[in-house]
Structures are given as C-alpha cells and as structure tokens.
Amino acid sequence: MNELAREFIASIRSEKAPLDGQKHRSSGNFSTEVLPPGTKRLLWEVEGGGVDPYDISFDVKRDVSAGTDPTELQDVITGNASRVISARSLYIANPKGAQSSFIVKVYAIT
Length: 110
Fold this sequence. Notes:
- The structure is a single chain.
- The protein has 110 residues and is mainly β.
- It has strands spanning 6-14, 41-48, 57-62, 71-76, 81-82, 90-96, 102-109.
- This is DeoR family transcriptional regulator.
C-alpha cells in the first residue's frame, strides 16, 4: 500500500472572530491555485487559538469580486481532509471556539 505524502501549500492567520466591517471573513486571502500533480485531498491543520485546536472550527469561502462569496467548506476542524479546491482567493470565515488568533496550515495530500 502506498503511503500518502503531504506537501505544504499555504499558511494563513485568522482572527477569533470576523474582521471589523466584515460579516464572515476572519483572515486575508490565501491560494490553493497551484497544487502538486496528483493531489487527492487538502489537509487542514490549526495551531494556536488559545484552546485545544480540535475545539476550533471554521468555514472556507471563495473571494469573488463584485459578487457573493460562496462557501467552499463548512465546519472544518484540525486534521480534516477535504475535497480539492483549486482557487486563487480563499479565506477563513465564521471561526468558532477560538479565544485568540490562530494559524491555519493547508497541505496537499498526494
């Protein structure tokens, strides 16, 4: 059986709540547009937040200019492996459970 490999794609800092003036967004944009060949899933890992990382969940939304931002993933927690999303402008939204800002790291699983 082949061992799955993971490759670092992105790291993004998220606040514990939506940014000032935002309804959902709690981070800047990050990209998953360039992925290694054969990527099967994306792995999401949380660091920080002032609590056990498993107590933090968040959504991933796609930034659409002059439109409504669609939700790509809901209720992501650390260790989740999701479907592949290849997009230039994604962001963390609707964080729950964090007491302070946290880091989300994204890995490609091949």
